[in-house]
Design a protein that fits this description.
Chain A: InterPro entries: AAA+_ATPase, ABC_transp_ATP-bind, ABC_transporter-like_ATP-bd, ABC_transporter-like_CS, Oligopep_ABC_C, P-loop_NTPase. The complex is a heterodimer. By secondary structure, chain A is α/β, with parallel strands linked by helices. Chain A is 30% helix and 22% strand. Chain A is built from eleven helices and ten strands. Classes of the chains: A alpha/beta, B alpha/beta.
């Protein structure tokens, strides 16, 4: 694997739950992220999937330093950014930028598009001298497929897809190396999603970007990602190359998640096996002991309640070469193909 | 025929002019059948459903023409109090956002039993017993204990089940579900769709499923009506449309789904944006985005051509689309 540009180790974010007004007493914590580790190689796209409340957006916020982790490290080119402050932090932040989910609320309605995209230059004036900014912003508009003459328009004059392009242009303004995209297409119309996915793909090769692509749409994640991590209740339960996760999942949660995705193929209706999970995701304020998935898992046994399964290549696949050889946090990991092979 | 919508037209008066949300929609549903109405935001799929249910805000909305035949009766000719009797007992609706569709200051038990006390004249006690029964039926654990709880005490999936329970309460013959699982997580979505399909089979109801998700459609629908800019552009049995679409818009939608063998390649994308309903392009509304558009598409509105006995496409070049 190419050199890792980001190394995330045992990342934890707990939000304290307090009681009392004057003398706040901590009575517990919402364990939003509870020990997440992964690497992001230069030029790579890492997809992170999971359901709401699994902590994927909190991870994103910590990667761009919008949230300070409770514990753990995020190393950017070998340096831990979680302990940085002042000038050093500012320099690192320039290189890790974010694209947000909702293009309607993430753009200031009172600023023109030019001001929105150019604002990063106010914070990092060394990137573009004042006289040069307008031209740079117009270049960016052109890069993301918008008319450079729109520079003086306001966000409400654009459609959802166009706004997301503006958000992407703003993310690109400082020429970052890493872009963290949190559900960048889920608020868009179906016919527009493909346009934005293509744009992100093109920009990646044009500017040699590394992406952390967070989404819940598994087919789009598969299309864009080199590797995929599956999160459940604050932890990564399985991670691997896209075909390892999609075609050879070994964690029961991944299998259930994949089997639950409706396939756009009516003939698959008859011959596919669906794993319908019972119940809901437990509260992260009070997660189950041991394996957090055990309350919904059909394989759960005594051991799962007592021992937290570690994210590692399961023993039964450790010696074998092949696609099942990838980290999976399950005591009873077992390969199971749930998505029928596509024909035609 | 359970429900037949004929040439329905709905418009909205706005400050900037008249927005034509629905421009001559025809579709029909039979008992036990699932019709998926597919479309993007602004395609008119929800407005059509609201007109059928009779819950359209008028004004600003206005039904400019057409008929809605429900079990042979034209609903648009009925008085409001007659429609109210039908609504809830004969046809019911499930909305996307259960949290905002349920009343936050009434317990779910009260909301469910209201169906029976208002429509069936039951006593409060009997109504409550019925509510527990319904919650059991949509598999809410510990229904008896939870019947007095409020909507915020339930998870998203359970709230949607309560919505389903409410819609099913009086065993209507038609259910309209407007994006019933869009707000839910994938694993919960599967549970809810399963439940809906099971109850539909049991009660032999007609189901109109409004969605933008091609995966959900393929999973549950018998036939599809794809809408674009207030018109149906293609109508077909579900297997046929996925095998060979006969309209460039549905074809584009299907092709833009990421497929395994295309990984690393550019996704097919329909160019441009859906039109503004105040300024729908002349001719075929899809023509500015269509790769096959010719002069005729810019001047004439394409009628629905019969592709097969149970299949229509509103494209002058449906043959070419089907073959190509």
């Amino acid at each position: 694997m190419a050199e890792a540009i980001l190394e995330v180790r045992d990342l934890v974010k707990h939000y304290p739950l307090t009681q009392g007004i004057l003398f706040k007493k901590q009575v517990g914590a919402v364990k939003a992220v509870d020990g997440v580790s992964f690497d992001l190689a230069a030029g790579e796209t890492l997809g992170i999937v999971g359901e709401s409340g699994c902590g994927k957006s909190t991870v994103a916020k910590m990667l761009v330093n919008l949230e300070r982790p409770t514990a753990g490290q995020i190393k950017y080119k070998g340096e831990d950014i979680t302990t940085m402050s002042g000038r050093a932090l500012k320099a690192v932040r320039r290189n890790i930028q974010m694209v947000f989910q909702d293009p309607y609320t993430s753009l200031n309605p009172r600023m023109t598009v030019g001001d929105i995209i150019g604002e990063p230059y106010e914070i990092h004036p060394e990137v573009a001298p004042k006289g040069d900014r307008r031209r740079k912003v117009q270049d960016l508009l052109d890069v993301v497929g918008l008319n450079p003459e729109y520079i003086n328009r306001y966000p409400h004059q654009f459609s959802g897809g166009q706004r997301q392009r503006i958000g992407i242009a703003r993310g690109l303004a400082l020429r970052p190396e890493v872009i963290v995209a949190d559900e960048p297409v889920s608020a868009l119309d179906v016919s527009v999603q493909a346009q934005v996915v293509n744009l992100l793909d093109r920009l990646q090769s044009e500017f040699s970007l590394s992406y952390v692509f967070i989404a819940h749409d598994l087919s789009i994640v598969r299309h864009i990602s080199d590797r995929v991590g599956v999160m459940y209740l604050g932890r990564v339960v399985e991670i691997g190359r896209d075909e390892e996760i999609y075609d050879h999942p070994t964690h029961p949660y991944t299998q259930a998640l994949l089997s639950a995705v409706p396939l756009p193929d009516p003939s698959a209706r008859e011959h596919r096996e669906r794993i319908i999970l019972t119940g809901d995701v437990p509260s992260p304020a009070n997660p189950p002991s041991g394996c957090t998935f055990r309350t919904r898992c059909w394989k759960a046994q005594e051991r799962c309640a007592q021992e937290v399964p570690l994210l590692a290549v399961p023993a039964e696949f450790r010696l074998a070469e092949g696609p099942a050889h990838h980290p999976s946090a399950c005591h009873f990991a077992e390969e199971k193909r749930v998505v029928p092979t596509e024909t035609g | 025929m359970l429900l037949e919508v004929r040439d329905l037209q709905v418009e909205f008066k706005t400050r900037d002019g008249v927005a034509k949300a629905v421009n001559g929609v025809n579709y029909s549903v039979e008992a036990g059948e699932t019709l998926a109405v597919l479309g993007e935001s602004g395609s008119g799929k929800s407005v059509t459903a609201q007109a059928v249910m009779g819950i359209l805000d008028m004004p600003p909305g206005r039904i400019a023409g057409g008929e809605i035949l429900f079990q042979g009766r034209d609903l648009l000719k009925l008085k409001e109090d007659e429609r109210r009797k039908i609504r809830g007992s004969e046809m019911a609706m499930i909305f996307q956002d259960a949290l905002s569709s349920l009343n936050p200051v009434l317990s779910v038990g009260e909301q469910l039993s209201e169906m029976f006390t208002v429509h069936r004249g039951m006593s409060r006690k009997d109504g409550k017993a019925k509510a527990v029964e319904l919650m059991d039926r949509v598999r809410i654990p510990a229904a008896k204990e939870r019947v007095g709880q409020y909507p915020h005490q339930f998870s998203g999936g359970m709230r949607q089940r309560i919505m389903i329970a409410m819609a099913m309460a009086l065993e209507p013959s038609l259910i309209i579900a407007d994006e019933p699982t869009t707000a839910l997580d994938v694993t919960v979505q599967a549970q809810v769709m399963d439940l809906l399909a099971e109850l539909q089979r049991e009660l032999n109801m007609g189901l109109i499923l409004i969605t933008h998700d091609l995966g959900v459609v393929a999973d549950v629908a018998d036939k599809i009506a794809a809408m674009y800019a207030g018109r149906i552009v293609e109508q077909a049995p579900v297997h046929e449309i996925y095998k060979a679409p006969a309209h460039p818009y549905t074809k584009g939608l299907l092709e833009s789904i990421p497929r395994l063998d295309q990984k690393g390649q550019e996704l097919y994308a329909i160019k441009g944006l859906p039109p503004n309903l105040m300024h729908i392009p002349p001719g075929c509304a899809f023509n500015p985005r269509c790769p096959m558009a010719q002069d005729i598409c810019r001047s004439e509105v394409p009628p629905l051509f019969d592709v097969a006995p149970d299949r229509q496409s509103a494209c002058f070049f449906w043959k070419e689309t089907l073959d190509g």
